[in-house]
Protein backbone atom coordinates (compact mmCIF):
# COMPACT_ATOMS: atom_id res chain seq x y z
CA UNK A 1 0.00 0.00 0.00
CA UNK A 2 2.08 2.85 -1.29
CA UNK A 3 0.61 5.95 0.35
CA UNK A 4 -0.69 8.55 -2.12
CA UNK A 5 0.74 12.05 -1.99
CA UNK A 6 -1.27 14.24 0.38
CA UNK A 7 -2.46 17.43 -1.32
CA UNK A 8 -3.79 20.63 0.23
CA UNK A 9 -5.85 23.15 -1.76
CA UNK A 10 -5.72 26.80 -0.62
CA UNK A 11 -7.86 29.41 -2.37
CA UNK A 12 -10.42 31.91 -1.11
CA UNK A 13 -12.75 31.21 -4.07
CA UNK A 14 -15.03 28.15 -3.63
CA UNK A 15 -15.25 27.55 -7.38
CA UNK A 16 -11.46 27.55 -7.72
CA UNK A 17 -11.15 25.03 -4.87
CA UNK A 18 -13.82 22.81 -6.43
CA UNK A 19 -12.05 22.88 -9.81
CA UNK A 20 -8.70 21.88 -8.29
CA UNK A 21 -10.31 19.08 -6.26
CA UNK A 22 -12.03 17.72 -9.36
CA UNK A 23 -8.73 17.62 -11.24
CA UNK A 24 -6.78 16.11 -8.34
CA UNK A 25 -9.42 13.48 -7.58
CA UNK A 26 -8.78 11.98 -11.00
CA UNK A 27 -5.29 10.95 -9.92
CA UNK A 28 -5.09 7.78 -7.76
CA UNK A 29 -1.60 8.76 -6.58
CA UNK A 30 -2.87 11.97 -4.99
CA UNK A 31 -5.18 12.36 -1.99
CA UNK A 32 -6.71 15.73 -1.11
CA UNK A 33 -6.47 15.98 2.68
CA UNK A 34 -7.93 19.45 3.04
CA UNK A 35 -9.22 22.69 1.54
CA UNK A 36 -8.56 26.13 3.03
CA UNK A 37 -9.70 29.66 2.17
CA UNK A 38 -6.73 31.50 3.71
CA UNK A 39 -3.02 31.22 4.33
CA UNK A 40 -3.56 31.10 8.09
CA UNK A 41 -5.88 28.11 7.82
CA UNK A 42 -3.38 26.39 5.53
CA UNK A 43 -0.61 26.72 8.12
CA UNK A 44 -2.84 24.97 10.67
CA UNK A 45 -3.47 22.01 8.35
CA UNK A 46 0.20 21.71 7.39
CA UNK A 47 1.09 21.59 11.09
CA UNK A 48 -1.01 18.46 11.64
CA UNK A 49 -0.85 16.71 8.24
CA UNK A 50 2.13 15.43 6.28
CA UNK A 51 1.26 17.54 3.23
CA UNK A 52 3.35 16.66 0.17
CA UNK A 53 1.66 18.85 -2.47
CA UNK A 54 0.39 22.37 -1.88
CA UNK A 55 -1.81 24.14 -4.46
CA UNK A 56 -1.75 27.72 -3.23
CA UNK A 57 -3.47 30.93 -4.29
CA UNK A 58 -1.54 34.16 -3.68
CA UNK A 59 -4.00 37.00 -3.05
CA UNK A 60 -6.24 35.96 -0.15
CA UNK A 61 -7.70 37.72 2.89
CA UNK A 62 -6.16 37.23 6.34
CA UNK A 63 -2.78 35.94 5.15
CA UNK A 64 -1.65 35.84 1.51
CA UNK A 65 -0.11 32.75 -0.03
CA UNK A 66 3.47 33.98 -0.40
CA UNK A 67 3.62 35.20 3.21
CA UNK A 68 2.24 31.87 4.45
CA UNK A 69 4.76 29.96 2.34
CA UNK A 70 7.65 32.05 3.65
CA UNK A 71 6.69 31.18 7.23
CA UNK A 72 7.24 27.45 6.65
CA UNK A 73 10.68 26.13 7.54
CA UNK A 74 10.21 23.13 5.25
CA UNK A 75 7.31 23.88 2.87
CA UNK A 76 5.62 21.15 0.84
CA UNK A 77 6.18 20.94 -2.89
CA UNK A 78 4.14 23.96 -3.99
CA UNK A 79 2.25 24.95 -7.14
CA UNK A 80 1.07 28.56 -7.04
CA UNK A 81 -2.34 28.96 -8.66
CA UNK A 82 -3.22 32.60 -9.26
CA UNK A 83 -4.91 35.03 -11.62
CA UNK A 84 -2.01 37.48 -11.34
CA UNK A 85 1.26 37.20 -13.25
CA UNK A 86 3.14 39.89 -11.33
CA UNK A 87 4.22 37.64 -8.45
CA UNK A 88 6.22 35.15 -10.51
CA UNK A 89 9.69 36.45 -9.60
CA UNK A 90 9.01 36.42 -5.87
CA UNK A 91 7.37 33.03 -6.16
CA UNK A 92 10.39 31.34 -7.68
CA UNK A 93 12.60 32.85 -4.99
CA UNK A 94 10.60 30.54 -2.71
CA UNK A 95 11.48 27.53 -4.91
CA UNK A 96 7.96 26.63 -6.02
CA UNK A 97 7.48 23.72 -8.44
CA UNK A 98 5.26 25.67 -10.85
CA UNK A 99 3.33 28.93 -11.34
CA UNK A 100 -0.12 28.16 -12.72
CA UNK A 101 -1.87 31.20 -14.15
CA UNK A 102 -5.69 31.25 -14.13
CA UNK A 103 -7.52 30.43 -16.28
CA UNK A 104 -5.71 27.23 -17.25
CA UNK A 105 -6.77 24.16 -19.22
CA UNK A 106 -6.51 20.49 -18.22
CA UNK A 107 -3.31 19.95 -20.20
CA UNK A 108 -1.51 22.83 -18.47
CA UNK A 109 -2.67 21.58 -15.08
CA UNK A 110 -1.47 18.06 -15.90
CA UNK A 111 2.02 19.39 -16.66
CA UNK A 112 2.12 21.31 -13.40
CA UNK A 113 0.94 18.28 -11.43
CA UNK A 114 3.49 15.99 -13.04
CA UNK A 115 6.32 18.43 -12.30
CA UNK A 116 5.18 18.72 -8.69
CA UNK A 117 4.70 14.96 -8.35
CA UNK A 118 8.27 14.23 -9.48
CA UNK A 119 9.61 16.76 -6.99
CA UNK A 120 7.52 15.38 -4.11
CA UNK A 121 8.39 11.75 -4.87
CA UNK A 122 12.10 12.60 -4.95
CA UNK A 123 11.75 14.21 -1.53
CA UNK A 124 9.93 11.15 -0.20
CA UNK A 125 12.58 8.79 -1.54
CA UNK A 126 15.32 10.79 0.18
CA UNK A 127 13.71 10.37 3.60
CA UNK A 128 14.45 7.20 5.58
CA UNK A 129 11.38 4.99 5.84
CA UNK A 130 10.09 4.67 9.42
CA UNK A 131 9.42 1.26 10.92
CA UNK A 132 5.79 0.16 10.38
CA UNK A 133 3.39 0.85 13.21
CA UNK A 134 2.80 -2.16 15.48
CA UNK A 135 0.21 -0.78 17.91
CA UNK A 136 -2.19 2.11 18.27
CA UNK A 137 -2.92 4.10 21.40
CA UNK A 138 -6.70 4.41 21.69
CA UNK A 139 -8.28 7.05 23.91
CA UNK A 140 -11.93 6.59 24.90
CA UNK A 141 -12.99 9.21 27.39
CA UNK A 142 -10.58 9.05 30.31
CA UNK A 143 -9.35 5.57 29.39
CA UNK A 144 -6.27 4.78 27.30
CA UNK A 145 -5.87 1.37 25.65
CA UNK A 146 -3.34 -0.24 23.33
CA UNK A 147 -4.53 -1.97 20.15
CA UNK A 148 -2.22 -4.27 18.23
CA UNK A 149 -2.20 -3.38 14.54
CA UNK A 150 -2.66 -7.05 13.58
CA UNK A 151 -6.03 -6.98 15.36
CA UNK A 152 -7.40 -4.28 13.05
CA UNK A 153 -10.00 -5.47 10.53
CA UNK A 154 -10.48 -2.28 8.53
CA UNK A 155 -10.22 1.51 8.79
CA UNK A 156 -12.36 4.28 7.32
CA UNK A 157 -11.96 8.03 7.04
CA UNK A 158 -14.09 10.27 9.24
CA UNK A 159 -13.23 13.83 8.18
CA UNK A 160 -9.83 14.58 9.76
CA UNK A 161 -9.97 11.40 11.89
CA UNK A 162 -9.78 7.67 11.23
CA UNK A 163 -12.28 5.13 12.55
CA UNK A 164 -10.61 1.80 13.32
CA UNK A 165 -12.71 -1.38 13.31
CA UNK A 166 -11.39 -4.38 15.24
CA UNK A 167 -13.22 -7.43 16.58
CA UNK A 168 -16.66 -5.92 16.20
CA UNK A 169 -15.72 -2.69 17.97
CA UNK A 170 -14.82 0.72 16.52
CA UNK A 171 -12.44 3.38 17.80
CA UNK A 172 -11.87 6.94 16.65
CA UNK A 173 -8.19 7.79 16.19
CA UNK A 174 -7.15 11.44 16.22
CA UNK A 175 -5.25 11.43 12.96
CA UNK A 176 -6.33 11.38 9.33
CA UNK A 177 -6.66 8.21 7.29
CA UNK A 178 -3.83 9.39 5.06
CA UNK A 179 -1.43 9.90 7.95
CA UNK A 180 -2.36 6.57 9.55
CA UNK A 181 -2.03 4.74 6.22
CA UNK A 182 1.52 6.03 5.78
CA UNK A 183 2.53 4.40 9.08
CA UNK A 184 1.10 0.93 8.31
CA UNK A 185 2.96 -2.03 6.80
CA UNK A 186 2.12 -2.02 3.05
CA UNK A 187 2.41 -5.82 2.94
CA UNK A 188 -0.35 -6.18 5.56
CA UNK A 189 -2.75 -3.33 4.80
CA UNK A 190 -4.17 -2.21 1.47
CA UNK A 191 -6.27 0.75 0.40
CA UNK A 192 -9.44 -0.37 -1.39
CA UNK A 193 -11.06 3.05 -1.65
CA UNK A 194 -10.00 6.64 -1.01
CA UNK A 195 -11.77 6.37 2.34
CA UNK A 196 -11.08 2.73 3.26
CA UNK A 197 -8.12 0.51 4.21
CA UNK A 198 -8.36 -3.22 5.03
CA UNK A 199 -6.16 -5.76 6.74
CA UNK A 200 -5.29 -8.23 3.96
CA UNK A 201 -5.63 -11.19 6.34
CA UNK A 202 -9.28 -10.29 6.93
CA UNK A 203 -10.26 -10.44 3.24
CA UNK A 204 -12.37 -13.50 2.43
CA UNK A 205 -13.38 -12.88 -1.18
CA UNK A 206 -14.03 -10.31 -3.88
CA UNK A 207 -17.30 -10.12 -5.82
CA UNK A 208 -17.49 -8.15 -9.08
CA UNK A 209 -20.11 -5.44 -9.53
CA UNK A 210 -20.65 -2.93 -12.33
CA UNK A 211 -18.14 -0.65 -14.09
CA UNK A 212 -15.08 -2.50 -12.79
CA UNK A 213 -15.94 -2.10 -9.12
CA UNK A 214 -16.07 -4.98 -6.60
CA UNK A 215 -17.37 -5.79 -3.16
CA UNK A 216 -14.80 -6.94 -0.61
CA UNK A 217 -16.14 -9.51 1.89
CA UNK A 218 -14.28 -9.81 5.18
CA UNK A 219 -14.29 -12.97 7.30
CA UNK A 220 -16.66 -11.34 9.82
CA UNK A 221 -19.25 -10.65 7.10
CA UNK A 222 -18.41 -6.97 6.57
CA UNK A 223 -19.03 -5.77 3.00
CA UNK A 224 -16.83 -2.96 1.67
CA UNK A 225 -16.63 -1.25 -1.70
CA UNK A 226 -13.48 -1.78 -3.77
CA UNK A 227 -12.89 1.05 -6.20
CA UNK A 228 -11.48 0.00 -9.57
CA UNK A 229 -8.71 2.54 -9.03
CA UNK A 230 -7.21 0.29 -6.34
CA UNK A 231 -8.09 -3.13 -7.82
CA UNK A 232 -4.61 -3.95 -9.16
CA UNK A 233 -2.81 -3.37 -5.87
CA UNK A 234 -5.43 -5.42 -4.01
CA UNK A 235 -4.96 -8.28 -6.48
CA UNK A 236 -1.19 -8.02 -6.10
CA UNK A 237 -1.31 -8.33 -2.32
CA UNK A 238 -3.82 -11.18 -2.50
CA UNK A 239 -1.63 -13.01 -5.00
CA UNK A 240 -4.16 -12.76 -7.83
CA UNK A 241 -1.80 -11.16 -10.37
Structure in words:
By secondary structure, the chain is an alpha/beta fold. It folds into 2 domains: 5-126, 3-Layer(aba) Sandwich (Rossmann fold), CATH 3.40.50.2300; 135-237, LytTr DNA-binding domain (OB fold (Dihydrolipoamide Acetyltransferase, E2P)). 28% of the residues lie in helices and 33% in strands. It contains 7 helices and 15 strands. It has helices at 14-25, 39-48, 65-70, 88-93, 106-126, 177-182, 231-237, and strands at 5-10, 30-36, 53-56, 77-82, 98-101, 135-140, 143-148, 154-158, 161-166, 169-173, 189-193, 196-199, 203-208, 214-218, 223-226. It has a 5-stranded parallel beta sheet with strand order 2-1-3-4-5, with helices on both faces. It is globular and about 60 Å long. The two termini are 15 Å apart. 33% of the residues are buried.
What is the topology?
Elements: E1 5-10, H1 14-25, E2 30-36, H2 39-48, E3 53-56, H3 65-70, E4 77-82, H4 88-93, E5 98-101, H5 106-126, E6 135-140, E7 143-148, E8 154-158, E9 161-166, E10 169-173, H6 177-182, E11 189-193, E12 196-199, E13 203-208, E14 214-218, E15 223-226, H7 231-237
Amino acid sequence: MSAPLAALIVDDEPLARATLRLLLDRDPDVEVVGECDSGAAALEVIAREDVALLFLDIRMPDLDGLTALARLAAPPTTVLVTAFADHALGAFDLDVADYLLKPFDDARFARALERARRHALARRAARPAPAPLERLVIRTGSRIASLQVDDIDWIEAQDYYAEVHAGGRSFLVRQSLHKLAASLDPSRFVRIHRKTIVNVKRVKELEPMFHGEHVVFLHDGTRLKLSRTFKDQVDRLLGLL
